[in-house]
Amino acid sequence: MLSAAFSDPVHDSQQTFRAMLSALAEPMIPGTLPRLPEAPATLDPACAAILLTLLDQQVRLWAPDLTEEAQRWLQFHTAYTSAESPEQADILWLVLGHERPPLARLKQGELRFPDRSATVVWQVEGFTELGAPCFEGPGFQTPRRLQPLGADAAFWHEWQQCNQHYPLGIDMFFAGNGQLVGLPRSSRLREESQACM
Amino acid sequence: MTHLHPDAARQHWLAILANSHVDALAPRLVPHLPDESRLHWLRQPHTGLAMVEGRIGGSGARFNLGEVTVSRASVTLDERTGHGHVKGCDIEHARLIAIADVLLQDPERYPTLQREVITPLELAIQARREQQQRETAATKVEFFTMVRGED
After folding, report:
1. Higher pLDDT, B7 or A113
2. B41: which chain A residues are within 8 Å (Cβ-Cβ)?
């Protein structure tokens, strides 16, 4: 049985989009999503809000973790297109900690069109500052620590590798439990030898 | 009406509902409306644009003819889902079609609704078309050429 999504699709997705822009402007600061839709059980409402906002019939989504029910729900509300492989995807929805495609294979854009790159939406349980890596770059007044639960050193290493050729690269969102964190391609990992707040 | 294809009956009633005037549909449907609290709206009634594609002749390539406003709504009731689509901006019409669609899928309600809503609307559409054809036929002009007498 299908369930509803945003109660006011136009304004709710506009507000979600605004929250996503803020998240990318101030990377690695957890923000809240103003409108959470009804969503299938396996899809976190925060991720559902982002997917409902970003997807339409021209967007190719790669989401191997979507259950059949969640697929039908998302298809009904957004009419998205399924990508045949992670390389072709415009948007990816992945559960952080589950199996993931190599990030280096995702679309990184072209020099003329760096915007033709993939955006990854990671579903996470929450965030912690304990043992977290330190980030810096545009949008950071001072370097900040934050760790989405489920991310490990191998993950950050892979992420660093695929963002070496700025302005090419991938943008990421971490969302779960009503919270949202953005990590644009312009952010960098700070060397551990340097001080971090 | 024959029930050859499971969706054929549904296509038939949806076509009739969408081609009827909302003023004709509303009074007939209102006595059958379920309690609003039992309805769960998947898509609130809203209006958007749809691209209409056309072909010149049977073999021409498809081209974009233009956009039309379309109103739609989707509702669930007792595990069944009803959809309403109608050309134009009348969201009330789309709302009523969605409710009628979900009610008509219920085998217990189908005979009553078919008798009291669909059949009268179908007759009204037929009458409207026949009237229009009569009016059009009345303006028919017979063209003929005079023989000019050359040989």
Report:
1. A113
2. 4
Percent of chain A with pLDDT over 90: 90
Backbone angle region of B10, left / alpha / beta, with phi > 0 → left and psi within -120 to 50 → alpha: alpha
ipTM of the complex: 0.73
Asked if the Cβ–Cβ distance from A4 to B79 is below 8 Å, we say no
For residue A1, being part of any structural domain is answered with no
Q: At what angle do helices A9-25 and A45-54 cross, to 10 degrees?
A: 100
Q: Can you tell me the distance from the alpha carbon of A155 to that of A164, in angstroms, rounded to the nearest whole number?
A: 15
User: How many structural domains does chain A have?
Assistant: 1
Range of the domain at A100: 9-184
Residue A142 belongs to a domain with what CATH number?
3.40.50.11310
Contact B76 A1 (CB under 8 A): yes
Give per-residue pLDDT as tens, B85-99: 999 999 999 999 999
Residue A101 domain flag: yes
Percent of chain B with pLDDT over 70: 95
The answer to whether residue A3 is domain-embedded is no
pTM: 0.84
> Are residues B40 and A4, on separate chains, in Cβ contact within 8 Å?
yes
Would residue A195 count as lying in a domain? no
